[in-house]
Design a protein that fits this description.
InterPro entries: Topo_IIA-like_dom_sf, Topo_IIA_A/C_ab, Topo_IIA_dom_A, Type_II_DNA_Topoisomerases. One of its GO terms (biological process) is DNA topological change. It is built from three helices and three strands, in the order H-E-H-H-E-E. By secondary structure, it is α+β, with helices and mostly antiparallel strands. The chain has one domain: Topoisomerase II, domain 5 (Alpha-Beta Complex). Helix 1 crosses helix 2. The longest helix is centred in the N-terminal third of the chain and has 13 residues.
Length: 107
């Protein structure tokens, strides 16, 4: 029997890890759709932690940042507004300074 400790394995069906799926689900349920105003990332992270992913906020925010970076994913899932890092290795701004909503493809 194989047990993985300290990391989640992506699902075979869609390639998402549980935290990615929970972020997209929480944003969809809350109505943070494309075309609507951006919402504070701290609020989104708090909602995900409070309802779906009872772990640290850093893991949730880092996963959301990755889904908003155009240089990490082929298709963006989250539309980020603010400093979400750079190719050169600059980190993303703190979650209280950034905003996000779903991309059209994520709805």
């Amino acid at each position: 029997r194989l047990t993985f400790i300290s990391r989640a394995i992506p699902d075979v069906r869609d390639g998402f890890k549980p935290v990615h799926r929970r972020i997209l689900y929480a944003m969809s349920k809350a109505g943070y759709d494309a075309g609507k105003p951006y919402k504070k990332a701290a609020g989104i992270v708090g909602e995900v932690i409070g309802k779906y992913h009872p772990h640290g906020d850093a893991a949730v925010y880092d996963s959301m940042v990755r889904m908003a970076q155009d240089f990490t994913l082929l298709i963006l899932l989250v539309d980020g507004h603010g400093n979400f890092g750079s190719v050169g290795g600059d980190p993303a701004a703190s979650m209280r300074y950034t905003e996000a909503r779903l991309q059209g493809v994520s709805q």
